[in-house]
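User: quick one, fold this
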Amino acid sequence: MLVKNTFLCISPKYVSSFTCRASSCPLAGGGPVLPRCPALRDLHLSSIYERSLLLTCPHAAAQVLFFPGKFHFEMKSVPAESLRPANRDIPTLGEPLAELSYILDLQRTCLRILETQKYPIDVRLILLGIYLEDAVDFINDGRGYDLGKIIKSYESPLFAARFDAALRNVKFDPLKHLDFLWGIVRTLASAPGAPLERDDFSQTASAFHLDAPAPDLAQIARAWPVCRRSLEGYVLLPHEKLLENFLLHQFYTELYPCALPGGIIHNYWIFVLGYKVFELLLTGRAAIGRQSFNDAELAAFAARAARLPQTPAGLHAIETALAPREEDSLGLFNLLFHSLK
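Assistant:
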């Protein structure tokens, strides 16, 4: 039973142990996290609050990305005065969208898919897209209350064959991948009030040899596996859960798949493209920095890159690139997903 003027608050386990040390933060010098901390975000959903950290703070980014444990939730009753309002407006919360009635079920199932460690990250993202397409069909048919049956059906041999066929149909081309994502990155670097810092742009361009006046396609194609090995060796080897932690945290914190107007599948592609831009920039930084790309620099980079889709210019760049391709799921799979084994 809740005490008067208290609310149920749910948060990932790593939030409760966060101590802010940013010099610009009101909590500088350490101490417990209080609602004044700008990295803290509370979002009111139905009868509970979801609490999280914003990765735009490098100290919060380090807390999230380097967390070694599983993505478990804690629930507790908190005083109303300790809650911090959402740090940005969630446009869909005030709209009568059918999927909002099922946001908690959708979100929890999606998080389970994203932490399915028997699959590489890209395979999890493909499975996530298939699940969300099925969920849209259920909701549109008035069967949102039966969403749990979708995951159960995935245990069948019929689904295994469907999923295997979907993976076999993906034909990745690194040059097309880089051309598509680099178009988004160039826009992020040149837009008014550019959200992408010049150093992040130039280092990624240099790593993939995209900064030459007349780019050599053969050289760029050779750079792709070299840069990927740098990412794996200098970032993912010491922090094997970093990309998984990033995906889980951003999906939960930004309230996907209902973060933006446009529907569940539109939200899915915005989420995937935001991650792929992050992955590309991170790969470039790892290839240039190598051993010198330390944890502090990695957290600072993540804080810069994580905010890109949340800025007006960043979201516009991603939605503009997505618009002509949004109805072509296989085409986007071919452009984006490379690590399927």
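User: anything notable?
Assistant: Confidence is low (pLDDT under 50) at residues 87-94.
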